[in-house]
Amino acid sequence: MDDDSPEPLSARAIRLASESFLAGSGPGGQNANKVATEVELRVNIYALRLSPPVFARLRALAGAKLAGNGDLIINSKAHRTQEANRQDARAKLAALLEEAQTQPKRRAKTRLNRVGKTERLKVKKVRGTVKANRGKPSSSDW
What is this structure's pTM? Predict the structure, then answer.
């Protein structure tokens, strides 16, 4: 079997990621106080060798999860077990990278035809006169 196919970005990111476990809050009752179940996943986005547009989208999507040194920090403490939190953190990372890779659709400019433009201007004129007629009546209106 040929192994020439490029490695998927999410798999490469998970391979480069470092995991640490913290005794965090969250579900688990007293178990949360005793066992380090919270997962912190760190990936250096510079090591991923992303194309400039994907890199820019990832930086925008990551927001506060991106540290100054280029580490993308993803936490997961939703589950009671280390393994479930590890899978959750990896899924969050894969989803973030997948979203950064999808190029947003370009917005198509809308064009208004001549009739639509004149209708819009007529309606604006009517609304303007309604608003101009509001207010206190002047002495000449008596």
Answer: 0.66
